Amino acid sequence: MTDTRIADPASTEADIAVLDHWVGGAPWAGESSRTAPVYDPARGIVQREVRLATTADVDAAVEVARAASAGWRDASIAKRQTVMFAFREIVNARKEELAAILTSEHGKVTSDALGEIARGLEVVELACGAASLTKGAYSENVSTGVDVYSLRQPLGVVGIISPFNFPAMVPLWFFPIAIAAGNAVVLKPSEKDPSAANWLAAAMSEAGLPDGLLNVVHGDKEAVDALLVHPDVRAISFVGSTPIAKYIFETASAHGKRVQALGGAKNHMLVLPDADLDLAADAAVNAGFGSAGERCMAISVVLAVDAVADELVTRVKQRMATLRTGDGTRGTDMGPLITEVHRDKVAGYIDVASADGATVVVDGRDDEFDGDPDGFWLGPTLIDRVPTSSSVYRDEIFGPVLSIVRVDGYEDGLRIINGSPYGNGTAIFTNDGGAARRFQREVQVGMVGINVPIPVPVAYHSFGGWKDSLFGGAKAYGEHGFDFFTQEKAITSRWLDPSHGGLNLGFPQHE
After folding, report:
1. Digit-coded pLDDT (tens) for 354-364
2. Looking at 201, 296, 304, 386, which residue is catalytic?
3. How much of the chain is in helix, strand and coil states, percent to nearest 5?
4. Does 296 participate in catalysis according to the annotation?
């Protein structure tokens, strides 16, 4: 479906394949001559280039989508469901092929890539049930002989702007629901790992989706801005950092669009003295270092109550010593970071921590890596006694750096969580049901785990945070997803009885 050839380090520029856009059901070069490198982060080499769309390229893709949307709007729900069921089977049958693309371009280990696909397929399965999720309501005889009912209709053309950390799952959060609801889509994936988007678009075509309903335009800020201001794009879905989410929301809203913009996070895990410390240590390691910490639901701060903090740090350190960092195809536990620049930025926080008085318990720069020496490596890093004034605590580091902040107790931990500008995910580890119930009521965060470190909701609930982690109010997938990608129309109807006659200029009266 997509060229996945790996470039040899000695290859000339002419040998490197260029990934085209996908428009109108086929690869499309567009007019732009600009490209960007796509790395294999486990080897530190450029394996392909990707085209960067101009505004004119985006305009052309939107026009293709607009032309296709009219017919799809009128397609039966049964037809849409048939496509979704077929797409689900194609992806599931060839998930290893897609996982290899994810590992090659993002760097995540194969097992993590397969997990990403599985979670994305949950939303596809939800979209297969669009018939029950796009129904309107009917009220009979609201006044004498008058009925009121509502219809859920598609918006038209919608834009999706997805991040590098989940190049398959995040697009799958949005476009299956948008398409099942009757819309056409223009998807702008991250230029850092773009090939999965083309693979998914080709799979949709193979599943029977008419041409032009799922288009992929690759690009940078020029392509993003073109989507945000285009008059035929009715809605924008975005996942990424908070500053960009805010920009997306403000720009697209100013141009009359619906916006769901999911931003960054600094997720805390509060460990109370009565918690199972083995469970808590396992959870902290799994949630802190899975996908190399490059996920918005990663636990990046453990709030450890003083009474158990030393023991918890010891157990976390012991578990970290068993992790293997290296090439994701070699059965390792954690892969490289996405780019050399990002790796260096994340590693820089280790020196900041020392300067701010924190204790570096495990320095990931000293790790041994099972992979090419030119890969973008940084091992799991544990930093204790991090002051909340430090940028190590405040910033979304987006890498394998786990901070321990020591707290006096429940109240102190809750105060720190609620004082954060972010409100994406959080967790509490305790065996006290009363404390857990109080926490779920009092914490100012959109997704809460109780003895669950990464509380990502299943597909029939909705994903999204509070505060600076969500702009626009509309969460992803679940009922929120179908609400976002449809517009409601209310109809008031009266069919007169054949025996009716005469004039009445007054207000209708109830009888």
Report:
1. 999 999 999 99
2. 296
3. 40, 25, 35
4. yes
